[in-house]
Amino acid sequence: MKIHLNGQTLDVQARTLSDLLAELEFENTVVATALNGNFVPANERRATHIAAEDRVEVLTPMQGG
Amino acid sequence: MRVYDVQLQSRLFLGTAQYPSPAVLREAVKQSGSEVVTVSLRRESAGKQLGQSFWSLIQKMNVRVLPNTAGCHSVGEAVTTAHMAREIFQTDWIKLEVIGESDTLCPDIFGLVEAAKILTNDGFKVFPYTTEDLVVADRLLSVGCEVLMPWGAPIGTGRGLNNPYGLRTLRAHFPDVPMIVDAGIGAPSHACLALELGYDAVLINTAVASAGDPVAMARAFAMAVEAGTKAYKADPMEQRDMAVPSTPVLGKGDLL
Q1: ∠B142-B145-B150 over CA atoms, to 5°?
Q2: Burial level of B150, CB count in 10 A (0-12/13-18/19+)?
Q3: Which of B30, B95, B230, B252 is flagged as catalytic?
Q4: What pLDDT is recorded for position B48?
Q5: Are strands B6-7 and B2-3 parallel, antiparallel or unpaired?
Q6: Inter-chain contact A37–B76, Cβ cutoff 8 Å?
Q7: CA gap B72, B137 in Å, rounded
Q8: Exposed e or buried b for every residue in B158-190, given b needs 16+ CB within 10 A?
Q9: pLDDT digits over B47-87, tens only?
Q10: B75: three-class secondary structure by DSSP
Q11: The model's pTM
Q12: E-assigned strands of B110-253?
């Protein structure tokens, strides 16, 4: 199914947020996640289902002012 | 200074963006003496670990981090970003930015108060990036903010303190609230003036990072902040409209 990850449209197999991170090789990175604009804590990713056209954001530490 | 029950020795907060290299950033932080650096969140690329390398660098510096919500133009965006930042950086401190206008990066003060209320209720310790407006400051304090971060000038402009009168009034109106001048400071003299006005600290990024020698500039800011702090404590003289001779007039010879 098609989802939108960090602004890019991708075809993915995963049906949960944790599976999505594994599928896209985010597993060993320091990231925080949001689904359709709502924060999803790390401990809720496994139980968080994703559907076609969902917007997923995967953010990581970055320089800031 | 004391912010949210944390005692800080340094009155210089430093941003971590725009440095020529990680090594320059590390040395600039060291020379600034800062105990708090600001950080942010951005999109990670699949299979990359760009964020990890930056985060590892910061963790080795032994400083506190103050995550920001830079670039957020809505309450919802800012609140979600704050939650994501709390999980990653393991801190409930958040420098809350809700931007209302793209050319000036002027805070959306209405959204700011709304987001600050939500986040303080969620247990965050909010550092709101605001203007020098007294009423907004009062609202921010009433929803639970214990620190204020009024701008000196628009972010990245380096124009210094655009409205010293407004900043002086804000300082006088809330004498016991920790206040950090954030944004717009371009030179150490600007930072010194903020401290001379009685502000507790300044937050600098572009002025250090974009200097020809960021490390030397970080040191210069540290010295300016120290000078401003000492000057404020020493109780500066009042300005006068008319000249007053400093050399005694009494006893001057008649040499005409």
Answers
A1: 105
A2: buried
A3: B95
A4: 78
A5: antiparallel
A6: yes
A7: 20
A8: bebbeeeeebeebbeeeeebbbbbbbbbbbbeb
A9: 777 888 899 999 999 999 999 999 999 999 999 999 999 99
A10: helix
A11: 0.92
A12: 125-130, 149-150, 180-182, 201-204
Residue B231 touches partner A, C-beta closer than 8 Å: no
DSSP conformational letter for B183? S
A46 to chain B, minimum CA–CA distance in Å? 16
B131 token code pair = 């203007």
pLDDT tens digit string along B132-179? 999 999 999 999 999 999 999 999 999 999 999 999 999 999 999 999
pLDDT confidence tier of residue B217, bands split at 50, 70 and 90: very high
Mean pLDDT value of segment B91-97 = 98
Q: Which two tokens stand for residue B125?
A: 């310790």
Task: For an interface test with A, give the residue of B87, B149, B203 to mutate (most A CBs within 10 A).
Answer: B87
Burial class (CB in 10 A: 0-12, 13-18, 19+), B224: buried
- Known catalytic membership, residue B48: no
The pLDDT value recorded for residue A26 is 87
How many Å apart are CA B107 and CA B148, to the nearest integer?
13
What is the rounded distance in angstroms from the CA atom of residue B53 to the CA atom of residue B253?
A: 73
Tokens 């200074």 correspond to what residue? B1
